[in-house]
Every structure is written in structure tokens, then in C-alpha cells.
Amino acid sequence: MKKLLTIALTLSFVLLLGACDTNDNIKLGVIGPLTGDYSMYGVAVANGAKLAAAELNADGGVLGKDVEIIAYDSKGDPTEGVNAYNRLVDKDGVVALVGATFSGVTLAVKELAIADNLPVLTPTATNPDVTLDAPNVFRACYTDSYQGTVAAVFSKNNLEATNAAVLYNSGDAYSEGLADAFVAEFTASGGTVTEYTFSASDDDFSAVLANIAASDAEVVFLPAYVAEVGAILTQADAAGMDIPFVGGDGWDGLEADYAAVAEGMYFGNHYAKSDTAQVVVDFVANYTEEYGEAPNALAALAYDAVYAMAAAMEDAGTTDSTELIAALTDLDYQNAVTGSIKFDENGDPIKAITIIQIVNGEHVVVDKVEGN
Amino acid sequence: MDIDLLIRQLINSLNTGSIYALVAIGYTMVYGIIRLINFAHGEIMMFGAYFAFVIATSLPVELPFFLIVIISMGLAALMGIFSEKIAYKKLRTAPRISALITAIGMSLFLQNFAQLLFGATPKVMPRFITAAPIMIGNTAVSMVTVYTIFMSIIIMVLLTLFVKKTKAGKAMRAVSQDKDAALLMGININRIISLTFAIGSALGALGGIFYSVAYSQVYPTLGVMPGLKAFIAAVFGGIGNIGGAVLGGYTIGFIETMTKGYISSKWADAIVFSVLILVLLFKPSGILGKNVKEKV
């Protein structure tokens, strides 16, 4: 009798829990590092996605329904990312995934998503393998190698450099991917490149910077994230180096803490806050009002990804995965904050990179460069 | 070979070496007194840097750098004393491995405590020393480096004088030689142990402040790698020997910087740790360490 009662109670509890989940919203999953060392990236993605959903809902929603963003923490860790993915698919029943934020985590959930035939549009995973052999996986940002290529074109054409140094984190796929592409493009166009490395546990870069300063490099390509870039530029500044540094989208947000040492440096990014296009101006204003700080590129990409996903749903007229994937494949979403979103055969976007110079702590658009 | 570059790298290695030496002294003093490898020492170093960061960024008045350093060192010294009273004192007669595990626990506790207090994101250390770089030949040397090297050397000299010439220093040496005999001679062992922890922690904090000012950031795991390398430096020089810690610190700093400068950053840690293994193979008690005969 007691056993029966237990079973009945458990069942009713499960049913009750299930009942909570059956609202009529269109659910989009977001996975990103919301806590820990890299939380600035994940929080920006979640905020950008939520802002887009709120705007869509205020405008009547998608297919007559409200869009709901469900964001889970990956801590930047693939295992946690897979847990978050399973929770989104099994418990929340999302129709598509806007994520994961990091390449490593996206690669970890990619195979699961292929098996589930779940449409995935990652706003920010730049590793080339993310979209390979996966018809259901798309991305809103350009790839690591494309950024490296553009940086080389920029260094060569705009900065007129023939000798370049590359300083990258040898233990990080993002950093190494950009560095390899830079070296390939710069050498192919007749320049010489010397490669230098550091590792993630390094705090002291003085030895390697001394070598670069003593070489005849006219430009240093530094594909790394803000924390490392900030430390490196500070030490370069303290040592009195005056060679321009060029970076990739990992530099985004650098001016907040390191404006003085980053003065005059260049980096390629998905969009510039100071862009005067109406959609950018509106996005920056709305985001700043909602969250009290200016959006970084990751927030812009997540915002665009949600809009692109909504556009694909309207095109497909349904949230059925197969038809949604077909609609994404043919999508041509103009007027996005980060430039138009249109996918090539792999699911990578075709777009120009905005080259920004940091001047007085502000972003100044120098040029828009295409890699090919 | 480019001579300017060599000078530059030598100065860089003096800078790194000074920091390792300061931190290594803390390891070696504590080991000398109570035969404990205080793995929480790297975290005291990290807290020293955070103390300076908090004092510099949250007080309404702008204090001079020296005052910030002294207050931070004082706070770190208190922290060292308390950690000993809370975690290690009761274990003085316990097997050595228990105290060692407690020290590792203390280290993890302090790391996570810092993460709770300050968050995991690296904080940007204010640039206390903004004076223009001085020129040595064609080489620009930043004032941070100059301060680090000279203040470290001055403090190490003062410490040596303290240990060799003062009564408290004599008591310290006595306790390290034979705790029971020292007690019989009327030395207050608890006070001497507290004093040792205080000095070691204050020097560690100074190392942490220089480290974070030179390399611009403070974060909760800041003490892990430099702490480990300072520990290697202490073992390398002969643990328990202050001169050995200084020698070890500069040697490890030199090897690391030269590897980074002339071989590759990829190899720096591998080579530093290999040196430790080699030294221990040929001279298990370290370069300046004494061979202690085991009594049967």
C-alpha cells in the first residue's frame, strides 16, 4: 500500500512538472559561460539573445507566438556544455539552439545536435570544424582562419608592412588558428613572418617582447583574448615598444581596462559600436538602456543570430527542424548589426570584417576588409 | 649575438628572479622552523596583491605606493600568523604528511575564498609606478623593474642582518636547530613561529605586489605558478637555507627567462621543472643544503 502511494505521488509529481513546461512559446536554447573566468562572453551572448527576443515579442512575436530564450551555463567547459544541451533538449524542448558560445563547447554538442537533427546557429564559435559535415549547424560569425587572413591583408595593404611578428598562445586553438592563417596569407603575398609563442599560464611576457622589439618586425599580430592582450600590451608599453599590434575579435572590450596601453592598436571585429548605420545605433541604444553597458561584438552576434533564426522560422512557416534547417540554408538576412547573414555551403557566413583602431579609448572604423 | 638584447633579457631575468627569491624565502623560513612545506604560501602572495589592489582602488584618498605596500605586507603577515594558529599549530606533533595535506587544503581554501570575495575575472592592477623608463645603454628599463630589483635586494640584506645579528634572529635559528632545547633555554617558541610566518608572509605579499604590478593583473589563481616556481627555487637552493632561497630564486628566474628569450616559451616550464629533477638527483639537499645524517 505504501509502495503504491509512493508511486502515485511520484507520478503525479512528474506530471505536474511536465505540465509546467507546456506553454506555447517558441523556445530557443542558449549555452555559454555565464559564470567563471569567461563569464563576460557568455553573459553578453545571453543578453544579446534576450534583447532580440524581447524586441521580437513586442513586435508580435514569431509565427504568432512569443520567443523565449532559455540560457544555461557551460562555464566554458565541454562536459558542462553537453549537460546544458541535454537539459535544453530533453527537459525544455527547445526548437533550436543559439550557441554554444565557445568553439570547444559547440564541437562537443555538435554530434548530439546532428543526431537530434536540431537546428544550431552559433553566434560566436569561430573554429573551422564547427560547421563541417553538419548540415544543421550554422554560424553568424566568420571563422578563425578568415580573421587571420584579413589581418594579414590589412597589415600588408593598409600598414604597408613586409616584416611581421606573430605572437600566439600555443595551447589555444583559437589563437593558433588565427596565427596559422595570418602566416599563410602574409607569406603568400611576399612578406616574412617570425613566429613567437606564449602559454596560458604565462604572466611574464618580457623575454619574448624583448625579442620582438629587437627584431625588424613592423607589425605584431597578436591573436588572443582580452586578459592576455591587456597584460602583453601593458608590458610592451612599459618596455617602451612602439610597434603597432593587430588583433582579432578576441580583443573586443579591451578598451574598458586597457585604453592607455592599447592606444593606436588595430583589431578586426564583427561590428563597431561607433558605426552610424541605423540598425547599429538602435541596437547599441536599446542594449545600453536594458543592461547599463555598451554591447560587445558577442552580444551583437547573438542578437543577430536570434533575428536570423526568427527570419528563417517565418520563411519556413513552422518550427519543424527539417524545414527550419532548409530555410536557414537559403536564408539571406540583410540589415543585421554585424552585416548581412547569408551562408555558404558549409554554413559559414559571407561578410566583410570591420577593422577598428583604438583612439582615446573609442573604436574608430578604419576600413572594412574582405579576405578573398 | 645581439648584446643589447642580452642585457635586456638579463634585466628581465633579474626582475623575475627577485620575485621568486622573495617568495622562496617564505617557503624556506617556515620549513626551517617547523619542517612544514607551506603550500598556502602562494595564496598569501596572491592575497598580498589583492590587498594592494583593494587599498589602491577603494580608498577615497590616494596613498603613496610605499604606504600601500607596507599596509598590504602587514595584512598578509597577520594572515600568515592566523593561518598557522588555526590550521598548523595543532598538527605540530602530528605526522608530517598531515600538516602537508592541511597546507594544500589551506591553499585551495584561500584560492576559492579569493574567488568568492573578488570574483574570477582578472582585475587590472593600478600602475603605481608611472615614471618614465630609465636608459641603460640602448636598453629602456621600466621603473617597476628597477623598484622590484632594488627593493628585493635591500629587503633580503635587511633580513639576513636580522637573522644573524638580532636576539630574535638568534632565537629563530635556535628553534630551527632544536625546538626542545630552545624551549629549555627560555625561548618562547610560539612567538618565534608566529614571527617566522609573519616575515615570510610579508615578503610573499611584497613578491605578489611586484608580480601583479609588473604583469598588470590580479586574479585568484595568481599565486599558483609563481608559488610553485618559488618552491622549486627554495628546494633548488637547499630548503631551510635563506641564502639558498635567494640563489635558487635568481637561478630559476634566469633559466626561465633565458629559455623564453632564446629557445621558446613552450619549453620554459618544462626546462625549469627538469632542472629541479636534475638537482635533486645529484644533490638531494639542494645546492646550499646541508646533508643531515639520520640518527639511528
Report the average pLDDT across residues of chain A. Answer: 88
Helix/sheet category of chain B: mainly alpha
Largest sheet of chain A: 7 strands, mixed
Total of helices of chain A:
12
Radius of gyration of chain A: 22 Å
Q: Which structural class best describes the helix and strand composition of chain A?
A: alpha/beta
- Number of separate strands of chain A: 14
Low-confidence stretches of chain B: none
Query: What overall form of chain A do the CA principal axes indicate?
Result: globular
Q: What are the main properties of this structure?
A:
heterodimer; A: 372 residues; seven-stranded mixed beta sheet; three-stranded parallel beta sheet; 12 helices; globular; B: ABC transporter involved in vitamin B12 uptake, BtuC; two-stranded antiparallel sheet
Kindly describe this structure.
The complex is a heterodimer of chains A (372) and B (296). Chain A is of the alpha/beta class and 372 residues long. Chain A has twelve helices and 14 strands. The longest helix of chain A is centred in the first third of the chain and has 20 residues, at 39-58. The radius of gyration of chain B is 19 Å and the shape is globular. Chain B has helices at residues 3-34, 41-58, 65-88, 96-118, 143-165, 167-177, 179-184, 189-215, 224-237, 242-263, 265-282, and strands at residues 123-124, 134-136, 139-141, 217-218. In chain B, strand 2 (134-136) and strand 3 (139-141) form a beta hairpin. Chain B has a single domain (3-282), classed as ABC transporter involved in vitamin B12 uptake, BtuC (Orthogonal Bundle), CATH 1.10.3470. In chain B, helix 2 (41-58) packs parallel to helix 4 (96-118). In chain B, the strands form two sheets. In chain B, strands 1-4 form a two-stranded antiparallel ribbon. Chain B has a two-stranded antiparallel sheet with strand order 2-3. Chain A binds chain B through residues 35-37, 39-40, 170, 196-199, 201-208, 210-211, 213-214, 227, 230-231, 234-235, 238-240, 257-258, and chain B through 2, 4-5, 8-9, 12-13, 15-16, 120-122, 124, 127, 133, 140, 142, 144, 211, 214-217, 222, 225-226, 256-258, 260-261, 264-266, 268-269.
